[in-house]
Design goal:
Oligomer: single chain
Helix content: under 10%
Radius of gyration: 26 Å
Number of strands: 15
Strand order of the largest sheet: 2-1-7-8-9-6-5
Distance between the termini: 56 Å
Order of helices and strands: HEEEEEEHEEEEEEEEEHH
Shape: extended
Strand content: 25-35%
Number of helices: 4
């Protein structure tokens, strides 16, 4: 529940008020921007709120209990502020949005109405609509570990332990041909077997996307050379001559962890977990019932 400052509460009790809404957007990389539905820039809480984007919100509703409340905000895509390629690259996924009620005649009088995170974003005709999920939404998400056959660690993290600085697991290359926005022919990876970087992570070291990371959906070798197919959602701002580094991919299976990375002792899944086929199975001729592991 929001606590209104005395001066703002008194102002809201008047017949005529001068209030507007402001939104403070904080991306996961720490970048902060501000927007308002007022027609002039405002500074409140050390943040400059600009009106240029025409950001507007739908009806907002707060409910009692643990129900998940959502509200949509709509704005314009612009080359110098919220860009279509940045949304496509996932820079706004999980961003925090704070909604403020501000007295635009005295911007120092404001109150935080709600705090939410950016959920689904849709883009069309030069505009975007972002669904803001209330903090209660986090209670509806699974937390903790799952008991499953596949590994739940990220390749190279502290739980995995694989050294991605090893030349066997890391490569560097350059884009030779851009066949489609997601299909790229590269040089510099000729010594690696086909599929070695499938599900790996590519990091751009030059070009318009320098510093951005992309997930590789497929790594293949054919008559055209070494081809990398990026997962959908990657931006199209890739050009010939752009350079990158890339790390090996992992499909989270025990066999891959054992054979490709020699890291079976750090496997963070449960590969010998019986599935429904074993739980509901029965003895048949020729079956193997020696108590051995289900996954070698």
């Amino acid at each position: 529940m929001s606590v209104y400052p005395e001066e703002l509460a008194a102002h809201l009790g008047r017949t005529v008020t001068t209030v507007c809404h402001c939104w403070r957007l904080t991306r996961t990389d720490g970048h902060v921007t501000g927007y308002t539905d007022h027609d002039r820039p405002l500074t409140a809480g050390a943040t400059l709120f600009a009106p240029q984007t025409g950001l507007a919100a739908s009806e907002a509703r707060d409910t009692l209990g643990l129900a998940v409340d959502t509200v949509d905000v709509e704005g314009a895509l612009s080359s110098d502020d919220i860009r279509d390629e940045d949304i496509a690259a996932g820079l706004y996924d999980g961003a925090t949005v704070e909604t403020l009620l501000v007295n635009w005649r005295q911007p120092e009088d404001f109150v935080l109405l709600r705090k939410a995170t950016v959920g689904r974003i849709t883009r069309t005709d030069g505009r975007f609509v972002a669904e803001l999920e209330s903090l209660a939404h986090s209670l509806d998400r699974p937390s903790g570990r799952f008991v499953s056959r596949i590994c739940d660690a990220e390749l190279g993290d502290s739980r995995c332990g694989v050294d991605l600085g090893d030349p066997a697991f890391m490569g560097a290359g350059e884009i030779e041909t851009v066949e489609t926005p997601l299909t790229l022919v590269a040089t510099g990876l000729e010594t690696f077997a086909a599929g070695w970087f499938t599900l790996g992570v590519l990091t751009w070291t030059s070009g318009a996307r320098e510093g951005r990371r992309e997930r590789v959906e497929m790594h293949r070798k054919d008559a055209t050379g070494t081809t990398l197919v990026l997962q959908p959602g990657a931006s199209a701002q890739v050009a010939e001559g752009n350079t990158f580094t890339i790390v090996a991919g992992c499909d989270k299976r025990f066999a891959t962890c054992k054979s490709k990375f020699a890291n079976a002792l750090n496997f963070r899944g449960f590969p010998h977990l019986p599935g429904n086929d074993a739980a509901y199975g029965y003895v048949v001729d020729g079956g193997r019932f020696d108590g051995g592991p289900l996954v070698p």
